[in-house]
């Protein structure tokens, strides 16, 4: 596998440095990830508590990005007991664990100190086995859950019934797409050209990122008797501006999201019978492990950050998720749906003045002006922080024990 020559082993631990390979970082820093989690907890603690908030919450995809932020907001905003499901890598043979592993270890440590129930299940959420283990965990410890957040982002899925493995692709549909993109590490504006997806690739992407697994989760929770009457379930989507549509909204991932929306409608009709509900929240573009893999999108995010920060509108995952819980779902508030029945948290991103400025900058941006026209620095800083690097107050020259758990 991968050798990590910049790591120096000592008895006490090791120095861990970022090792970036394209759009992933193959190392993560336990203390930096803990600091990143703490920042999100602190954000929520500064807000007023959520009245009538969720009590027992299951988050599927709970270790990074929007799922982690949902977990933190429910736990620290509403005092909820949380069960998290995710697929992360523990530390092995002196190699650091994945960021989501360290995030979860930090979340557990803090939750325990604060008297909040937390349980986590690491494994393939697409499998029957992990669904069964989750149902058991809920049954034994909590009885039921009243909120189920589905926030899985994965490049592949093995179907639990057929054993077939599907790989998702990020491609346009119908015609070739060429546009600007960015090599964030080199700070270069590049050009991508993508061939249209085949019908099979479209179907495979829908199989991975569409709604089937979400529905199977609700089936398993209902059959296991652990879905509370009146429970809410939600999943996340993205729409974005037209410049990203060929690769997102109108591309293979957009088809999967359309399937997710149809699933929300079906689940909503089903859960309504027992006063429950299912819906899609459309979130804003943020730097996450999932979004950094999409061509074109990271350059768009760098421009969006520039414009939204200048206007004082900038939000990350935790601000978005807390806004969802505190101003739409609970606190005696009502969900505010768009004409397609979705909750929109991308309202500030999609504001006319924001998008007009982003579009104008999109036409201007080149490698030469990337540092002034975009917030590439903010993009890179967020990307590093996903893996626990560049966090204030952390001594990255110090040995740390990579083997932490909960
Ligand atoms: P992320 O990569 O940060 O998180 C993905 C989560 O899924 C992690 O917890 C990971 O462990 C888990 N996961 C992946 N494969 C798994 C498996 N087989 N079994 C169990 N867990 C698994 O992603 P994110 O950006 O937070 O995306 C979450 C959702 O939010 C997605 O539906 C995405 O489309 C949506 N969304 C993201 C953005 C964005 O800009 N990042 C914007 C709007 C909506």
Describe this structure in words.
The chain is an alpha/beta fold. The protein has a domain at 20-171 and 201-288 and 314-347: Rossmann fold, CATH 3.40.50.720. Helix content is 39%, strand content 16%. It contains twelve helices and 13 strands. The chain has helices spanning 30-46, 65-78, 99-113, 128-141, 199-209, 212-223, 252-272, 297-310, 317-329, 352-364, 370-373, 376-386, and strands at 20-21, 24-25, 56-60, 81-86, 118-122, 145-150, 156-158, 165-167, 177-183, 188-194, 227-237, 277-282, 343-344. A seven-stranded parallel β-sheet has the order 5-4-3-6-11-12-13, sandwiched between helices. Strand 9 and strand 10 (188-194) form a beta hairpin. The chain is globular, with a radius of gyration of 21 Å. The model is unreliable at 1-11 (pLDDT under 50). The protein binds nicotinamide-adenine-dinucleotide. The site of nicotinamide-adenine-dinucleotide has 29 residues, from helix 2, strand 4 and strand 11.
